[in-house]
Each structure stands twice: as C-alpha cells, then as structure tokens.
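Hi,

I'm pasting everything inline rather than attaching a file, because the server keeps stripping attachments. The sequence lines come first, and each chain or strand is labelled.
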Amino acid sequence: MALHGRIVSLHQDPENLYYRSVFPKGKEPIKDEDDTLPLLKHYLNLTPNLTQLYAEWSAADANFKKKAPKFTGVRILKQDAWEALVGFICSSNNNIIRISQMIDKLCKNYGPLLGNMDELPYYDFPAPSDLATVGVEQKLRELGFGYRAKYIYKTACMIAEKEDGWLDGLRNPESPVLGVKPVSGGDFVPEGREGYRSAHEELLALQGVGPKVADCVCLMGLGWGEAVPVDTHVWQIAQRDYKFGRGKHSSLTKATYDAVGNKFRSLWGKEAGWAHSVLFTADLKAFSERLVAKTETKEEVDVVVKEEADGEAEIETVEKDTKVLVKQVKQVKREAEDEEKPLTEIKENVVKKNKRRRKAY
DNA sequence: GTCGGGCCTCTGGG
DNA sequence: ACCCAGAGGCCCG
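And the predicted assembly:
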C-alpha cells in the first residue's frame, strides 16, 4: 500500500504484524527518523481499548451485547479523506474485489511513481488535480469504472476547484490528525452547525456521493465517529432488531436513513459508527458461522490468520476495506529491507474483512 | 419530501 | 443456454 508518500508492505504471522517501507529516491528519511510505525498505528487505529468500548456498547444495548463477538475486534481505519471519498464513490452497487481493482487502476494510471519494491513499481494515490483533466471520464470508462467514471471525474473537478485543504477542513478537530499537513484555510464548518452534520451535508453536494457514501467518508476519512453508514445490510439489521421497516419508516427514504443513524447514535454515543461496524460484521452469516463453529481454540484462530497473511495481494485490500478486523493484542515486529530487525512495541494482527474470502474458511 | 427506473460489470442461482 | 437479482448506491425526472 501507499502511505504518506512511501510504499509500505505488510504481512503477518500468527504472532506479529510486519512492515517495511520504501521511500522515493531522494526522500529517504535520515537514520532513525522513519515515521512509518506511528503512521501505521494511526492508520489502523490501534490505540483505543476495544474491550472497554465493547463493554460500553453492550451496557447500552442488549442486542449489541447478544450479537457482538467477544474475542475479535473491528477497528475503523483512519484513511486519507480524499482516498476514502474516491474509494467509496467506487463502492456503489459494487463488490470489494472490483473496488480494489479500480483503486489500483487509479493509482497505476494517474498516480505518481513512488518507487520499486521487490522489483515492482508502486504508485501513490492520484491527487484531485490528476483526475480533473480532460479525457479522464472517457479513460475511466475504458478501464471498466462504468457509470462511476463520471462521478469520479466530476468530484475531482469540484475538489480541485475548491480552496486547498477544503476536504480536510471538514475533519473532526477532536480526532488526531497524524501525518496530515496543517490546513491553511482551516475550519469550513459554518457557524451554528454541528460538525458532523455539516461535513455530511457538504459531501452530499459532490457527484456520486449520497448519504451512505457521505457517512463512510465522515467515519473513515474525516474522523467523525458518530457517522453511521446505512447500507442495505444495516437496513436489514435495523428492521430486524431495531423495529424499523414499519409505519413511518417502512422504506429507506432520506428521513428513515437519518432516523436509523439517530437511533444508533442515541444508543451507542460518540463512536456509534464503530459500534455499528462491529454489529454489521458480527451479523454476516459466514462470519458468525465461523465464530460459533470455532470457539477460542488457539490453533483454529491461527489458521484464520495464516490464510489472511499471504503477502502482497492482501496489502491493497487491507487499505481499501472499510473495516479491519483485529485480533487480540500481539506484537508488531519491525522489518527492514530484507531482514528483520528487533521488534519495537505493538500489537494486533490485522485480518481482512471480506465476505467472499470468508467463505473459503 | 417520495418514488421508479436506469446504470457498468460480474457472479451465483433458478 | 439464458435470464435475473444483487453487489455495503446514486442520479434524474
């Protein structure tokens, strides 16, 4: 994956998550000043205490208590806002495999070369201005983006037109912004408007951005923990477990969409979007089958991790996924160039969230 | 505000 | 062989 202007390779074994980084020529950090580790921890959002959060959500909501898995975690990525925006525009009416391929095509065709790793070239995610040039829509159609080609092109134009830093100005000021350049324009939130609502509304003006995509960008890209993306699956859950789908809220209209989000926010509070993702994940049939079938048996858990840890192909998908499943606290070793170096601190194994893959277990 | 129809492309199921 | 619904939606009228 590309992370803050460098190539980062990730892989893992049952005990550790490993990474190594390659910087563009001339931009190599001086000795002991590679900040990849903190950036990675920030990106994967590894700091919050999952056990405590789960306890809070369970105390507030019996359904969550009943359905949420006990021994796995789901974490919300802290993605770059622009990347999240484009990624989720691509996600409409689409599956994860294809979305990943589309993101990859954007990087290869429009992103700056970062350098090579293992003999292979890697490209950064393109800037808005890179995608706001004539012929982009046509080209993206040829590349298989379908009707989303126009959305990406038009949204890129709109963002490129705006003041520099506009998108990051919609960010939650409470949320840590590690690695994000300071914004000159700063606060784009209108007076008297609560931050999340305002950010959501601003995003809706962009082409290809409806309420669901706007909430994904708010949650994953802008640090608004209370954003609750209501997709078809969450809508099913809301109907089955939270008494929606009848009377006033019989269909998923705009008003109903907001009502579902408000309900979850009132239940789960400031990190409602996180809780919702946990519940969502827990509800996936294949996933829950896996959980009940294999209890905390150590070997079996390890098998799961192994299957996910198969190198380069996984790297893209980890970046693209809206959620990352994280196992219990482990350690992260640091790996440099071709040989491993002494481990630094941390934790966590990352498991890709992907329904299709899960079937293979 | 709500409601249908259409949209790129791929895939699994009748 | 063929059609159709669905994929973590959105736009337009």
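Residues 88-89, 91-96, 98, 147-148, 151, 207-213, 216, 229-234, 280, 322, 355 of chain A lie near DNA strand C (CB under 10 Å from a C1').

If the labels don't parse on your end, tell me and I'll reformat.
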